[in-house]
Amino acid sequence: MSPDDKRSALAAIAFIIFFGGGFLIMPKIMLWLGSYSPWLGGVFGTLFVLAFFGVFWLRRKYQNRK
């Protein structure tokens, strides 16, 4: 396994842990924030999902540069 492959594997593992765990606890966080303001819970959920796709967008931009 080359160093680039190891770095890619570690990045994939970190991505899965962060977003996988985030999507598991996101409903609880949204309900907690929604008890203060429904808009706040909705904004949090929207931003989290956008961040998920934003990582892929940033990766595509980085890959196009190389």
- Main sheet summary: none
What is the H/E order?
Answer: HH
Low-confidence stretches: none
Separate helix tally: 2
What's the count of strands? 0
The helix/strand class is: mainly alpha
Mean pLDDT: 91
Helix content: over 70%
* Radius of gyration using CA atoms only: 16 Å
- Sheet-strand content, in percent, reads under 5%
Terminal CA distance reads 21 Å
Report the principal-axis shape: elongated
Summarize the structure.
The chain has 66 residues and is mainly α.
Characterise this structure.
The protein has 66 residues and is mostly helical. Helices cover 94% and strands 0% of the residues. The chain is built from two helices and no strands. The protein has helices at residues 3-36, 38-65.
How would you describe this structure in keywords?
66 residues; mainly alpha; 0% strand; elongated
Task: Give the topology, please.
Layout: H1 3-36, H2 38-65
